[in-house]
Write a structure and sequence with these properties.
- It is a single chain.
- By secondary structure, the chain is mainly beta.
- The strands form four sheets. Strands 1, 3, 4, 6, 9, 10, 11 and 13 form an eight-stranded antiparallel sheet that branches. A seven-stranded antiparallel sheet has the order 15-14-18-26-20-21-25, with no helix packed on it.
- A hairpin with a 2-residue loop joins strand 22 and strand 23.
- It is built from three helices and 27 strands.
Length: 441
């Protein structure tokens, strides 16, 4: 197919508002606006009766035999899902720059579609993205619409509500096949969000180093137009499967504060030594960005950890919190996320707050070999905990809160240089914030 704790009150308020909006939408008749929505600037893109203000991609009208209206829904029958078929992507006549777009979607067993945006109609591209690609279909961002169960073998960043092939949805609640799900796309300045059934599940910042690195590791590396801010139409994708859309509504936004660069995790000074010691040290801290993290997976062929694209592990930085989930596959049951900016040759102290699931935190040999210093099985759960990891004047220690944890070593660590890393098994997710690094003289 081509296509953290201090913030909980604010996030809860946003989520509650979204749920109220969702509830009021469900209470209203399909394809109608409530007085509150009208006052807030929402307008319908589909009235439930006609395809006015829509056209088939590359045409000036809706192609005969493609999208039709049934029971107040835009419905696409089964087809071959290719530009040379009888369907085609359904595209708005109007373009938008900063907007919120809400819609309800329903698929049957095996269903596959998407909502596409940040594309330019008629723009040719140098590479084909799927068998039968003629270059006559949108290439941009896509809100994936999918029967996840039937496509369980897909990469996590290609499942329902993902920013297709780029950002994996986190914490989503997907309704069963045959029921309507509510989707929402927000483009506000450079900030992009995907919502599913009242929950924000994916986001990114256009132009950020983190997104650029993800794109460079994806199939979109062959096309430099993906992830570029532009005025855009909105398209409903024909992928050959029957799909229905209703309650398509949009409101335009004035560019706001979210046009600023994405927040970054910051490394700030820490005490001269771990709280359990009194030795002084030289501080060496620098601002930390998502691009400072690298993903390594174990290569049996090379008998070492090797670097892999970030799509092997989903990472997001938002409001000073790094969220990471191991989205590899059964061939890569473990992956490690290394803080690549700081390579520790001698004494060091790393402290951070974390919550979630975490197999271990380690000092991993910089050469990717099997030598490492490991704090295995640290406490798990939804509460924030503080970890501290150090190698200081011959003493190695690991703490979580006020509890010192045992350390395990693999190989001879004398003279070893390495990186601080988090190790996660397949499916594990952890959040980390307030990362602080200090090195000795």
């Amino acid at each position: 197919m081509h296509r953290t704790s201090m913030l909980i009150p604010q996030l809860a308020a946003v989520a509650a508002a979204a749920l109220l909006t969702s509830a009021s939408t469900r209470a209203a008749e399909p394809n109608n606006l409530t007085p509150q929505e009208q006052a807030a600037g929402w307008r319908l893109l589909f009235d439930g009766r006609s395809t006015k203000s829509w056209h088939t991609y590359g045409k000036t009208h809706v192609a005969s035999g493609s999208w039709s209206i049934k029971d107040g829904c835009l419905v696409l029958p089964k087809g071959n899902g290719r530009p040379n078929g009888h369907g085609g992507d359904l595209v708005t006549d109007a373009k938008y720059t900063n907007f919120e777009f809400e819609f309800e979607w329903r698929v049957g067993a095996g269903g596959n579609s998407g909502v596409e945006y940040l594309f330019t109609e008629g723009e040719k591209r140098p590479a084909n993205f799927y068998p039968g690609d003629t270059g006559d279909s949108p290439v941009g961002f896509e809100y994936q619409v999918l029967d996840d169960t039937a496509h369980a073998g897909n990469a996590q960043n290609r499942l329902a509500a993902s920013i297709y092939s780029l950002i994996t949805p986190v914490g989503k609640l997907l309704r069963p096949v045959g029921e309507f799900n509510q989707g929402r796309v927000v483009v506000d300045g450079n900030h992009v969000e995907h919502w599913l059934n009242g929950r924000k599940v994916a986001e990114c910042e256009l132009g950020s180093p983190a997104l650029q690195q993800i794109i460079a590791s994806s199939k979109y590396k062959y096309y430099n137009g993906v992830g570029v801010k532009r005025a855009t139409a909105i398209a409903l994708q024909d992928h050959g499967a029957e799909v229905a859309y209703r309650n398509l509504k949009l409101r335009e936004l004035r560019p706001g504060a979210s046009t600023a660069p994405a927040p970054s995790v910051t490394a700030t000074p820490v005490p001269a030594a771990p709280a359990k010691t009194t030795t002084a040290a030289a501080s060496g801290t620098v601002p930390m960005q998502a691009a400072d993290w690298r993903v390594w997976c174990w290569s049996k062929a090379e008998n070492r950890w090797t670097e892999h694209p970030l799509d092997k592990m989903t990472t997001q930085i938002k409001d000073g919190v790094l969220t990471v989930r191991n989205t590899t596959n059964d061939n890569w049951p473990r992956a490690i996320l290394l803080y690549h900016r700081a390579r520790f040759e001698g004494d060091f102290i790393v402290s951070a707050e974390y919550r979630g699931e975490l197999e271990s935190f380690d000092l991993q040999a910089a050469d990717g070999g099997s030598r490492r210093l490991t704090c295995a099985k640290p406490p798990q759960g939804d509460e924030w905990r503080t970890l501290m990891f150090s190698r200081w004047q011959g003493k190695q220690s690991a703490w979580v809160g006020d509890t010192e944890l045992p350390l395990q070593s693999s190989g001879n660590l004398n003279g070893m240089s390495g990186y601080f890393c988090l190790k996660l098994r397949l499916g594990e997710q952890v959040e980390i914030q307030n990362v602080k690094v200090q090195v000795g003289k």
